[in-house]
Amino acid sequence: MLLNSLLPLFVLAAAAFAVPAQEKRIHHHADLSDRVHDDAQGFQYDHEAFLGKEESKTFDQLTPEESKDKLAKIVDRIDTDKDGYVSHAELHYWIKHRQRRYIEENVNKHWKDYDKNQDGKIGWEEYKNTTYGFYLGEEFDDIDDKATYKSMLTRDERRFKSADRDGDGIATREEFTAFLHPEEFDHMTDVIVQETVEDIDKNGDGKIDINEYIGDMYTTEDGEGEPDWVQTERKHFNEFRDTNKDGVMDGGEVANWILPGEVDHADNEAKHLIHETDTDKDEKITKKEILANWNLFVGSQATNYGEDLTKRHDEL
């Protein structure tokens, strides 16, 4: 009786230790933020790109004056040659640095959960037992959704083995980083593609057709026409995703879709921030120009409150 009463608690514990869904599912090349980049809807994407996801949250709690003061100090750090200007190269380097720091902090957070013996390594058995250990002896028989947990275990093991380059069953910190953030490593491309196809391919043919592609993003309601953005995605599938025009995306085409190596999001964001703030159009920005547009770079209680009011007004 006691064992049965504890089962829900262990289910919750396993779910808590499992790698978050957003890190298991890689649909596109790693953006700087999971926010939509549309300045008309707010600057949260830019805040997370410029500061990093975690640091941007701390700025959201500050007053505008505090945010501007901290931003001024950051600008001094970005201006590495101390010429009074932030160039594209300096801003690009800063944004890349912030994203690397986010990944490092995310890995550190999970590392503490899984390196139980604190030997500086994480074995597959160590990870498996921490995440799924309570159920393994019974093959998940006591869990209502046991098929899902079995699938998660299979997926984790495959990804772990792909990250474990020397095949010793033990992940170094770099290998564990590849496990959590496969989009950052070229040798993880195949497993990312396989996971994406498995998630979207509903008929099991190992490919993604246009209905599966659209169905992963949008579900049609009865009597409701498709939004314009869905029509645009259909066009993208036919014109750009399905490059050989056979009506489906195979593994190579999926790889080109989710991991377009030529896209440098940090470079694009640096160009965007300079374009929006470079008032004299000299292709570099001063501290004065940045602080004049401070809410593009960082948030505060005031800007968040304003965005909330805008959203509420739109809903009305």
Give a quick precis of the structure.
This protein is mainly α.
Structure in words:
This protein has 316 residues and is mainly alpha-helical. It is built from 17 helices and 6 strands. It has helices at 2-17, 21-24, 44-51, 53-59, 64-78, 88-114, 124-136, 146-163, 173-180, 189-200, 210-215, 228-241, 251-258, 265-277, 287-292, 294-297, 301-315, and strands at 85-86, 122-123, 170-171, 208-209, 248-249, 285-286. The protein has a two-stranded antiparallel ribbon with strand order 1-6. A two-stranded antiparallel ribbon has the order 2-3. Strands 4-5 form a two-stranded antiparallel ribbon. α3 (44-51) crosses α4 (53-59) and α6 (88-114) crosses α9 (173-180).
